[in-house]
UniProtKB/TrEMBL annotation, chain A:
Functions as a two-component phosphorelay mediators between cytokinin sensor histidine kinases and response regulators (B-type ARRs). Plays an important role in propagating cytokinin signal transduction. GO terms for molecular function: histidine phosphotransfer kinase activity; protein histidine kinase binding. The keyword Phosphoprotein applies. Keywords: Acetylation, Cytokinin signaling pathway, Cytoplasm, Nucleus, Phosphoprotein, Two-component regulatory system. This is Histidine-containing phosphotransfer protein. It comes from Vitis rotundifolia (Muscadine grape). Histidine-containing phosphotransfer domain (HPt) contains an active histidine that mediates the phosphotransfer. The keyword Amino-acid biosynthesis does not apply. The modification Phosphohistidine is found at residue 79.
TrEMBL record, chain B:
One of its GO terms (cellular component) is nucleus. PROSITE patterns: RESPONSE_REGULATORY. Belongs to the ARR family. Type-B subfamily. This is Response regulatory domain-containing protein. Keywords: Activator, Cytokinin signaling pathway, DNA-binding, Nucleus, Phosphoprotein, Transcription, Transcription regulation, Two-component regulatory system. GO terms for molecular function: DNA binding. Residues 180-190 have a biased composition (Basic and acidic residues). Its main location: nucleus. Residues 18-133 form the Response regulatory domain. SMART domains: REC. It comes from Vitis rotundifolia. GO terms for biological process: callus formation; cytokinin-activated signaling pathway; maintenance of shoot apical meristem identity; phosphorelay signal transduction system; primary root development; regulation of anthocyanin metabolic process; regulation of chlorophyll biosynthetic process; regulation of cytokinin-activated signaling pathway. Residues 163-197 are annotated as: Disordered. It is found in: Nucleus.
Amino acid sequence: MDVGQLQRQFTDYTASLFREGFLDDQFTQLQKLQDENNPDFVFEVVSLFFDDSEKLVNNMAKALEQQTVEFKQVDAHVHQFKGSSSSVGAHRVKNVCVTFRNFCEQQNIEGCKRCLQQLRHEYSLLKSKLETLFRLEQQIIAAGGSIPMVE
Amino acid sequence: MESGFCSPRTDAFPAGLRVLVVDDDPTWLKILEKMLKKCSYEVTTCCLARDALNMLRERKDGFDIVISDVNMPDMDGFKLLEHVGLEMDLPVIMMSVDGETSRVMKGVQHGACDYLLKPVRMKELKNIWQHVFRKKIHEGKDVESYECMREIHMIMSRSDEFDDGHQLNGGELGATRKRKDMENRRHDDQESVDPSTSKKARVVWSVDLHQKFVDAVNQIGFDKVGPKKILDLMNVPWLTRENVASHLQKYRLYLSRLQKENELKTSEGMKQQDFTFPAGSLGFQTSTLIHPKDAANCNLKYTGNNMLLIDMGTRICREADKKGTVSILPMDLKETSTSNFLDSQRANVSSQTILSRPFNYQSSQSNTTSQKWNEVPMEQFKQPPKQEPEAYALLEDDFSHALQSAPQHHVQVDLQCSAYSVGPGTAVPERDKPGSVMITPMCSQSRSNHSQIVNLEASDAISSFKVGMKNQMIGLNCLNDCEPIQQKIFTVGDSSLGSQVGCAYTESIGLQDIDLFDYYNSELIDELETSYYADLGFNWDNDCDSVQNPFVDQGLFTARAEASGVCYPG
């Protein structure tokens, strides 16, 4: 595949992620922040996000597995996760967090557990999609091209 | 990453702004760091609030602004906000993914200068410098922060975007300009003026510092005093000769004004004209007032009346050990332009309330002792009014007039300032106490047993105070029939100060005395300013229009006094 094609692929793929709600404007902001001083900025941030998220999701799971569920605690974790996901523009993930928090407020354990599951699902989906995107980026660079700028 | 004190800030403000970011979320921390760097700011990141506080404490002047998340595991963001505001007085911006009104409200209540919603955008971060600049402007009007003003001017002149000083107009930097126009002065601060210093050291003449100054002056002998001698005696390492010289200048001026006033007004009785101190009679005194030893203490010349004045001048009528006592500090007697002074008063007041505990209120409180110019501990004033610091409001001019003739009366001053609560304390005027004029704020009448506390609740206070002040004359008039004791006069600061806390000295002297207000609560200052100007012919935009005529107000005053229990004739 030549550079041009790779770049087009990259652009299309990015567009679809936005279209499908996986990413929102914040991601674009991140891309704008990337510059020659930090050529891997987006990648680094996203990596940080995924690392941190693992912890958060595990904390949530643990809290929900307790005999007596401490909803305030669960809510705190979800709130944190919501903040995190908003940092990378993980739109769908963030939305699940909102629903999740509502269930916490209602002290609805079933609702919470469902949300946790959904969260895990959205989160891994996003992760794989972003990994694809990064791979594309690397291919472009390897082929000598530059990453197309996002609007 | 810290450029320490040699910040390039002033070179191309706002570039180089030193920002401390606190967020437990590593992703956000990284993003914010990048964003702020893109704004050409100097960024330090921290993921724990405790670490942030330590960092701030270690490098006192190492940061210009703090941005913090609300939700953090080790410490609540609001708490951090409070700490930073109190200890370092830096602007703090809160952030959160939660934008609920209640949260934002909480942020504002805790003192946040802004509340950003996550995800934070570049454009929002780009403008955070405004909070730093704004604070600088306010600082510049504060105390003798000539350095601050210079810094501001430097910032402005260097920035392409600014229109060379025109951005800050009138009110803001007017003070500065006026200051510059005024006399040369301020050489004392010049040595500390260093554009590259991140925060200029302001010579704040705190109660203690001033007391040292006064002690030194007394020791040397007022006639023989000189800045070098004073400086040596004071033994304050960081103080310079210039600082002392300028303070001495102000002090002398203050005293001479008092004296002049004394002479002028002796016969004035309670007329309310402009609030000027009756010659020599101003000064709140505690019952132990005007003791020769006191006079001697201040080592100033004085006549009977003057003594008081001077005495008052130098002291804060209040007990130093009482919490919250505020005394009117002779603050800086430097001449500063009125507006400047007032502005600074405004700024200053917040941390220092000056209430003079003038009169010794009845000694039920232990006021007899040190009436010195003591500034009430700052913390006191920072506390909410419920604290009831012992603050005595100095009613300037007005009181002085009144007091002059009848020192023993307790004049009730209805001072209400949000800042301080003045306890009527000695609500019961002890007429027979020689020279005990008590000014009790009406409002707090019910409250404290610390008579000297002036409760100031801003808006009410001001008006009521004004009224009070105005009525002062009247009230005091009534006092005439009390046996005149000598003098104990309340040093009332500028009449305009009615609402203020403790601004003594200077009434007619003019705005110069406003320096004193440096120590005063800024809110009060505002009020004062109003009243002050009013007296001088400006109008009192407060609601006390009716107060203009003292007689009219008398009823008010009286009523209030009566209500509060003040017993003064009439």
